[in-house]
């Protein structure tokens, strides 16, 4: 290890900055002891930090009022995805009002960079970035989220998340 | 149209066109931008979309370019602000009732409405009334789905069924904003050329059931090729990606197919796709529990060379198990390129057999010379003419009866069959194969799709027409070059490549043996700087 040997006179006065640092440390320690609720660190597994509503975490596929998927399989999210992690398989729906829907929708979450382009590209508010960010898994396969997990996982409290865009309302509005 | 040339000026550029040319054709010839929907070069002029407005010097009002003929010294332009506004408002009227379906519309990405809005429109809509709702997902037959809301009533499809297929299935019904395309009761759109209406539809009103929702078009690349469905040899373009081919569409060739192709020909896109292809060579096994096992095609051909072609004990004659070389038979189907026939026949004549033991397998003699008057021919092989020419040149054109006679008379060692790539058009293929099998010791069978698992059949995977280069000659003797589109089966070989290995030479592949799935080009990120 090489050391820089400073020759100037100021370098000799090393003691004041050290003292300054120590004073800061002790100040923090005392304030943490006296005012515990203002402490900056968390006891992580027991305590969680709640992020703002715009946080980009794991994806959620939203649902319509009848509980079916909002996604129309237009592939705009897959097209815009810079990490190429979205795979969609489209099919023909029996109802002519729906016409096209996904029969498979997979996100490779290890590949995802959480940029949020999918959310931005979606024309019908079918995919959102949710608040979840703790994505532990046992092996690689548990990181490929399938359509069921994305839409109706347990943490979404059953039923899934309702989409803001409704076809019936749009038709009524004359669009 | 007479040969007399007349001069005119389009957007201050001079051009000479033959007399009788319409203004829009002159625009297309000069590559000048002009908006249009209803005009199609292969159809009659309808003049219903009113978008191809041009200003002609000396005429106070705008004229439509599709229905106005060029005259001597005409000065035409469509660059003034006035005319641009006319086109823009014309376009807005077309789009008033057009639904915002682009996310689920199959046409998105190749839609003329999208393209022309970006080129000539770019207005903000002023319509405050509700959109008129029409029928969606209407079944027009076994091939086509109609969406009336998306239709802009350009009448191209109606004119197609009236003028080209002459079946008159489609019509425009009702009036005003309620008018829509439809079929008559009990008469679905089922003619042999129906899917052409999907190609000429400028919007997503007509979509093909075959391609519907399979892929978004921006994921597909396009390559030029030739249709191998019959001996007409229509020029086509195929859309493909690393997963395989997805559809075939006609490409303009004045001499052969014009702007059209038949629906049977569109099905050939399925042939090179991986599902159902012979993935590896199948070699007869000596085990009792299974009749064959799979090895690489190069290894299989080397094995064939060792068994059937290596020099015998007497030094100069090629033999196997005491069978003389002239007891081999070569059967050819007309589904290969001319170059492949050259290579295989000269190899066969050099090492295996005589001119008398080459046969040409005609698949459907009873309707071989059929022709429906437009494009579809009974001869379902792309290169019949090429094969016959070579056989005549080599004086090896033997009648099929001779083959039967030879097979009945004596025990044949090996039958080498260059099998058809499109097995569907050979209805008697399995029956024939069993017949060959019972009359010989071994069959070397070049095929793209596995057929018969037998202890006598060696199956070698071949490249389909979309994976190799070469020449095919159509019914009229017109030679057309084809280029490799992509590679889908890594161990597939063309006949020429097989012959190289059979000759004992090292195979040098000029192209990559296998197209690896490339990373998808993401235009949003790649072209960010230009956007």
| Strand order of the biggest β-sheet of chain B | 2-1-5-3-4
- Unreliable runs of chain B: 313-325, 521-531
- Give the beta-strand count of chain A: 5
The rounded Rg of chain B comes to 28 Å
Strand-residue proportion of chain B: 15-25%
- Number of structural units classed as domains of chain B: 3
**N-to-C span of chain A:** 71 Å
The secondary-structure element order of chain A is: HEHEEHEEHH
The number of distinct helices of chain B, counting runs of at least 4 residues, comes to: 13
Mean pLDDT of chain B: 87
Report on this model:
The complex is a heterodimer of chains A (about 180) and B (about 525). Chain A is of the alpha+beta class and about 180 residues long. Chain A has a domain at about 60-165: 2-Layer Sandwich (Alpha-Beta Plaits). Chain A has helices at about 15-35, 75-80, 115-120, 145-150, 165-170; strands at about 60, 85-90, 100-110, 125-130, 145. A 3-stranded antiparallel sheet of chain A has the order 2-3-5. Chain B is an alpha/beta fold and about 525 residues long. In chain B, helix 2 runs antiparallel to helix 3 (about 110-120). Chain B folds into 3 domains: about 5-80, Ubiquitin-like (UB roll), CATH 3.10.20.740; about 100-275, Alpha-Beta Plaits (2-Layer Sandwich), CATH 3.30.70; about 280-500, Rossmann fold (3-Layer(aba) Sandwich), CATH 3.40.50.740. Mean pLDDT of chain B is about 85; it is low at about 315-325 and about 520-530. A 5-stranded mixed sheet of chain B has the order 2-1-5-3-4, with helices on both faces. The interface of A and B includes residues 72, 79, 91, 97 and 99 of A.
């Amino acid at each position: 290890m090489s050391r820089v040997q400073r020759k100037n006179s100021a370098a000799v006065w090393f003691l004041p900055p050290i003292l300054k640092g120590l004073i800061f440390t002790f100040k923090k320690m005392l304030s943490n002891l006296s005012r515990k609720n203002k402490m900056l660190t968390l006891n992580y597994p027991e305590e969680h930090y709640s992020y703002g509503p715009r946080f980009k975490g794991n994806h959620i596929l939203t649902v319509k009022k009848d509980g079916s998927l909002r996604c129309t399989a237009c592939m705009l999210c897959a097209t815009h995805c810079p990490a190429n992690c979205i795979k969609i398989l489209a099919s023909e729906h029996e109802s002519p009002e729906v016409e096209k829907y996904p029969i498979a929708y997979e996100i490779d979450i290890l590949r995802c960079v959480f940029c949020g382009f999918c959310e931005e590209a979606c024309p019908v508010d079918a995919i959102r970035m949710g608040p979840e960010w703790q994505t532990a898994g046992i092996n690689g396969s548990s990181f490929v989220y399938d359509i069921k997990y994305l839409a109706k996982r347990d943490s979404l409290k059953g039923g899934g998340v309702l989409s803001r865009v409704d076809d019936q309302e749009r038709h009524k509005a004359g669009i | 149209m007479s040969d007399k040339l007349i001069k005119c000026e389009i957007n201050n550029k001079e051009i000479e066109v033959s007399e009788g040319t319409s203004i829009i054709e002159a625009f297309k010839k000069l590559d000048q931008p002009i908006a249009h929907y209803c005009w199609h070069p292969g159809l009659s002029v309808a003049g219903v979309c009113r978008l191809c407005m041009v200003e002609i010097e000396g005429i106070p009002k705008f004229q439509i370019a599709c229905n106005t003929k060029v005259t001597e010294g005409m000065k035409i332009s469509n660059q003034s602000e006035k005319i641009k506004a006319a086109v823009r408002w014309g376009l807005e009227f077309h789009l008033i009732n057009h639904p915002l379906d682009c996310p689920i519309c199959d046409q998105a990405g190749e839609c003329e409405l999208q393209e022309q809005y970006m080129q000539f429109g770019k207005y903000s809509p002023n319509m405050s009334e509700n959109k008129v709702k029409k029928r969606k997902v209407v079944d027009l037959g076994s091939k086509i789905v109609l969406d009336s809301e998306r239709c802009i009533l350009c009448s191209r499809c109606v004119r197609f069924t009236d003028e080209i297929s002459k079946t008159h299935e489609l019509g425009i019904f009702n009036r005003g904003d309620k008018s829509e395309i439809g079929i008559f009761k009990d008469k679905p759109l089922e003619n042999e050329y129906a899917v052409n209406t999907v190609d000429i539809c400028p919007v997503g009103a007509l979509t093909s059931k075959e391609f519907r929702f399979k892929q978004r078009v921006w994921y597909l690349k396009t390559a030029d090729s030739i249709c191998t469905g019959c001996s007409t040899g229509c020029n086509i373009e195929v859309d493909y990606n690393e997963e395989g081919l997805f559809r075939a569409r006609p490409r303009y060739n004045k001499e052969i197919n014009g702007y059209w192709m038949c629906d049977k020909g569109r099905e050939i896109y399925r042939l090179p796709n991986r599902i159902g292809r012979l993935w590896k060579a199948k070699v007869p096994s000596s085990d009792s529990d299974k009749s064959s096992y799979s090895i690489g095609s190069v290894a299989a051909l080397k094995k064939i060379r060792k068994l059937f072609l290596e020099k015998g004990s007497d030094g100069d004659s090629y033999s196997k198990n005491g069978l003389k070389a002239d007891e081999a038979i070569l059967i050819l189907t007309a589904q290969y390129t001319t170059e492949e026939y050259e290579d295989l026949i000269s190899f066969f004549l050099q090492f295996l057999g005589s001119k008398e033991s080459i046969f040409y397998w005609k698949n459907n003699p009873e309707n071989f010379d059929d022709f429906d008057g437009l494009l579809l021919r009974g001869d379902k092989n792309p290169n019949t003419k090429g094969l016959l020419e070579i056989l005549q040149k080599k004086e090896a054109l033997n009648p099929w009866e001779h083959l039967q006679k030879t097979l009945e008379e004596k025990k044949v060692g090996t039958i080498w069959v260059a099998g058809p790539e499109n097995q569907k058009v050979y209805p008697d293929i399995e029956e024939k194969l069993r017949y060959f099998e019972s009359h010989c010791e071994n069959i070397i069978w070049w095929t793209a799709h596995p057929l018969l698992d037998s202890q006598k059949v060696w199956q070698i995977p071949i490249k389909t027409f979309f994976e190799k280069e070469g020449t095919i000659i159509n019914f009229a003797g017109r030679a057309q070059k084809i280029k490799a589109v992509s590679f889908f089966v890594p161990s597939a070989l063309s006949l020429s490549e097989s012959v190289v290995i059979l000759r004992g030479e090292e195979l040098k592949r000029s192209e990559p043996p296998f197209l690896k799935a490339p990373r998808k080009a993401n235009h949003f990120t790649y072209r960010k700087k230009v956007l």
